[in-house]
Amino acid sequence: MARAQEVAARFPGTTVQHFHRQFHQIGRLQLKKCSPNPWNAFMRQARAQNNAFPPGERMTLTELSKDASERWKLIPPQDRIQTVNVEMSELQEKRAMRSKTAYNHPKQVFQDCQATLQGVRDVDLHGRTGVEVLLFTSRGHVRDWANAAVFSTNTRLQDFFKISTSLSVDDFAYHMEGFCIGGVAGAASSYATEILNLKQQVKTLINEGLAAIVSPRKAPRMVYINFKQNISHVHNIVIEGWPLDQFRSPGDFSNHDQLQQLYNAWSDGKAYWRHLTPAEITLREASDRALREQEEAARNQATLDSTLSSSLLPTPSSSLSSTPAMPPSEMLVPSQDSSVGPSPIPASVPSSGGVTFQSVLAVNGSGMIEMRTTTRGKRSGAGEKRKKSGDSAPNKKKKAKTSTQTSMTTSLTSANVAETIPPTTSPLAGSAPTHPQTSVVPRFTSASSHLLSSTSTQFVSYQCPPLPFDTPSPPPSLAPTFVSQPVVPLHGVASSGPVTSGTFSVFKL
């Protein structure tokens, strides 16, 4: 200090404090703030009293300071601290909070930033100490007025920064500002997180709208699959303005643009719930009724087709056409009063191993099945006790028992013999006689024995070409074919539709 006084005496117009700071390199930045004194507390009390007066009666700041000074002098010094004791504690607390309290207006933020940064520049730490400083500043909110700023004490720092980061200090400051404004959560959030947030927001908007439109009833769970049956038909409501082509749950969409479009539509009111009008409800009920009838008809047709398919087996193969037919002299066609006898087996027809059957169609409505056996090789289980078949005996003919509940479905294995049936009267078609038909009396084999009824029954067998039951009867010249009158299986279910290719059945007319 003595050295500073000596130098200050040699240079008039200078102060001792100036040379003292220069000698000791004391910074100019005010590092310690003054604590509030009793006079500050007394002035704060005087301003509060002045603000209590109505407008027009308040003193100006100059008048208030003069009046407060005169009153302050009248107070004894030993009583001054006690007079402003309460104001002193409040003032200290206010100053302590001022450094931590955020400003209410962007202008205050801007002014504080500019003053503080200017003070940093005025310190001139580099000029006094040679320390290099590179300082970046950025606003923390988009509403702030202060822009990003860069302060450096030397251009070498800027060159070094560009070489190290491949960015200029200005570009880096702008990147930092964007990061600070967006926040850590916004900058680090991934695309998947944003997609999940959009899905949840759209779902919330849709559920809130559904709860509002069905109020005061309990809001149902939103269902997108079968929406008409589960939501629209139950509550008579629909969604208008759905912006996308596909009506699915928001959770099924993964495209950001589609989810954003959904969110904008529901948040802006372009997509909304509404009640159906009475006319729309009537039209919907009629449409549903027609659809149910159509589905029921389709199910009935499918059941009918399945019944026919299970009753009909493949027709004779094309190889049968080359098999010589039975000579007319060997055909057995009984008259109306004649009894039914077995048809002779033509010598040209080869017999197969196992049990063979030969059917004869009688004009008088009676039917007979002739069952024969052929010689077969030695079975593998020779020597073991044979199981009773109960169906046949070697070289012995049986007459089939009658049964009205059994249908026969067999596959043809040998030649077919055609014969013409005179006009008859069908019990299902009334008294109208049917046209002469060409029927086929096949010789067939079966894995099991089926017995047919012969009481008031005309047994008709048919072969390819397959024709529907309702096809008009062709002339006899187009034989072989089958009768065109309605055919009912023995189990009692009416049948219709085309004859499946490759089948042979026996029906009860």
UniProtKB/TrEMBL annotation:
Residues 303-324, 402-415 have a biased composition (Low complexity). Residues 422-437 have a biased composition (Polar residues). Residues 292-354, 368-437 are annotated as: Disordered. InterPro entries: HMG_box_dom_sf. SUPFAM superfamilies: HMG-box. It comes from the Eukaryota. This is HMG box domain-containing protein. The lineage of its organism: Eukaryota, Fungi, Dikarya, Basidiomycota, Agaricomycotina.
